[in-house]
TrEMBL record:
This is Probable transcriptional regulatory protein ACFFHM_13515. The keyword DNA-binding applies. Pfam families: TACO1_YebC_N, Transcrip_reg. Belongs to the TACO1 family. YeeN subfamily. Residues 3-74 form the TACO1/YebC-like N-terminal domain. The keyword Cytoplasm applies. It is found in: Cytoplasm. InterPro entries: Integrase-like_N (IPR017856), TACO1_YebC-like_2nd/3rd_dom (IPR048300), TACO1_YebC_N (IPR049083), Transcrip_reg_TACO1-like (IPR002876), Transcrip_reg_TACO1-like_dom3 (IPR026564), Transcrip_reg_TACO1_YeeN (IPR026562), YebC-like (IPR029072). Gene3D superfamilies: 1.10.10.200, 3.30.70.980. Its main location: cytoplasm. SUPFAM superfamilies: YebC-like.
Length: 239
């Protein structure tokens, strides 16, 4: 795997902390998840996943509660879940997931972000086949061997367990997200540095320095869009 998840998360969190955009994005995502079923994470698995992610980004309880109460209140506000695919400099690949109440606006904004930053929109399916949907769980203060032992005790077989920097990262199938977390919680481990359902590139690529700078501008432009929730790519920025 090798993706430096802590570095990616810290870069994104540092950028978003200055504008509170990440909180607004989580508020929307929590609201949408809460409307998909009961607004209770114990009976709504989609909501539970979002809340676990929100916890690792220190989203304030007030924002979480407001989004859930909005869903409980029967708000008629609705959002479409959209996925865009495209290419950055030197053939790099990008997936953009969005939640929007105006499909035409979002499509135009995403297309413009690609066009203005040396990228190109692709057709549906042009990129996703090179990515795998993956659950990523990160922990601190525990070794890969200890993690493996915990998972073996409850017969949970995951894709990979590796140590990155000061964390141990578990890569699993998406439908194992709760199973893996429950295994740790049963071992009295309740804090996670990462709790993500993501699209992980099958093969990372490195870009020349000039292309890497342009690529970062493209990713920033996409992440700056109000309707964009997640941006995935296959570029390894290195250390």
């Amino acid at each position: 795997m090798g993706r430096k998840w802590n570095n990616i998360k810290e870069k994104k969190a540092s950028k978003d902390a200055n504008t509170s955009r990440i909180y607004a994005k989580f508020g929307r995502e929590i609201y949408v998840a809460a409307r998909q079923g009961e607004p209770d994470p114990e009976s709504n698995r989609a909501l539970k996943v979002v809340l676990e992610r929100a916890k690792t980004y220190s989203v304030p309880k007030a924002i979480i509660d407001r989004a859930i109460e909005k869903a409980k209140g029967g708000s008629e506000e609705s959002y479409d879940e959209l996925r865009y695919e495209g290419f950055g400099p030197n053939g790099s690949m990008i997936i953009v997931d969005a939640l929007t109440n105006n499909v035409n606006r979002t499509a135009a904004e995403v297309r413009s972000a690609f066009k203005k930053n040396s990228g190109n929109m692709g057709v549906s399916g042009s990129v996703t086949f090179m990515f795998d949907a993956t659950a990523v769980i990160g922990l601190e203060g525990i070794s890969a061997d200890e993690v493996l032992e915990i998972l073996l005790e409850v017969d949970v077989d995951v894709r990979d367990i590796i140590e990155e920097d000061e964390s141990t990262i578990v890569y699993a199938e998406p439908d194992q997200f709760h199973e893996v977390q429950d295994a740790f919680k049963n071992a009295d481990i309740t804090e996670f540095t990462i709790a993500e359902l993501t699209m992980l590139a099958q093969n990372d690529v490195s870009l020349p320095k000039e292309d890497q700078a342009q690529f970062e501008k493209l990713i920033d432009a996409l992440e700056d869009l109000e309707d964009v929730q997640q941006v995935y790519h296959n570029v390894d920025f290195g250390e």
